[in-house]
Every structure is written in C-alpha cells, then in structure tokens.
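User: Second chain of the day. Same drill as before.
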Amino acid sequence: MVAESAAALGGIDGLVLNVGIGLGRGMAGTTAAQWDETFAVNTRAHFLVAGAALQVLDPGSAIVFISSAAGLRAATGIPAYDASKAALPGVCRQVAREGMARGIRANLVVPSLVDTPLGREASRLNPGRTARSLPFGRQATAWEVAYATVWLLSGESSYVNAHPLVLDGGAASFGLPPWRCVAAMWLRGTSSPLPSARVSRLTCLPCIYFRPHDLARCGPAHAPLAGHGVHEHEPET
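Assistant: Same format as last time:
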C-alpha cells in the first residue's frame, strides 16, 4: 500500500495514521480474540505502515499518529482499546529515532472527547461519558484535531519530534473530568473515626492541588484519613 501510494503520488512527504476500534468490555469481558483484533488494528497496523513508510518517505517528511487520551489513563472500560492506544507512543518514539538520520519526524496527536458522529453514538450508549465537567464546557471538534495534525506535518513544527500533543482542553492538567473521592463517600456512608470538627476542616491534598473545583462536589466530608486507611480516588467512567 505504501509503495503503491508513493508511486502514484510521485513520493510521500507526510503520513497520518488514524484508525481505531474498541472490542470487549472490562478484563473479564474481553476475549483473547478481541484483544488481538483491537491491537492488530490500533497498534500493529501503525507499526507496519510506519515501518514501510520510513523506507520511501522523502527527507524532511513527517508522520503523525492519532492516539487517544484513553491511552493516558484507564477510563473507557475497554482495556484492549486503552492499552493499544497507550502502546502508540512507544511505536512513535522508535519511528522518530530511526527517521532522524533523514530528517523525518514522528509525533502523536492525543485527543480526548471529540464531537463526531461516532463520538455522539458512544455518548448515547454511555451517557456518563459526557455527564461531567468538560474544559470550556464542550468537547473538541474534528477540525481542532485536524489543525493540530496539519501543524505537526508542517515545517512550522520542524523541531518537534517524538512528542505527544495532548488535545484535551487541559483536562489532564486540571484533574478533569471530576472524580469521586472514595474517602468522602466512605465518611458520608459510615460513622467517621474522625471528630466531625476535624472532618470539616480537612481536605484531601490531591484534590486541593489537582481538583479544586471538585471540593464543593465532594462536600465537607473530604478528609485525608491519616492513620485511618488509604485515601484513594476512583474515576467516574
């Protein structure tokens, strides 16, 4: 396919690898066949095409892998999808390393929720997917993903290499989407071993630094539970 494309176009100076499927649900609900098929499409195909492209790309060309924020954290409930997308940075880094000798760059665009027909169908089947605070109050648009991709293909990003460009409106940096504080839920649901006055004063340090907007959501029952168990956070997926 790559050789035929190069022959038909008179050469290739840009390549975008954008494909993805997700099969199975949860570890117990994912068969080995579903795992293998998902990796074949989401990871193996990228490896094969990028490897072939390195042999025919013009010097100074660029490759862009379209990954997913699902590869940054387990959130979709589809482990084969999350893991296959998490593998792409490794493929991209190797491609970037081998391409440097001829000035060929390789980078990733890592979008979060994107407003597309497929995304809207996923939200219809799983309303909890978008029932949360989103950066700027909306999902990304397909055009925004395209603009990021075009920039990475262009000479304007000539010193950007082996880089994951996260396109999530800042969600990963600001702690969005909101999380349920396990300690707060436990304190609300059981008798607390901590004095109520102390509970009302204390807050969870991870929430202070990463999710300050969630303090009102979790309420005054936020507490670090020092000496009374482990304070964990559980993602709402």
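The two ends are 38 Å apart (CA to CA).

User: Great, on to the next one.
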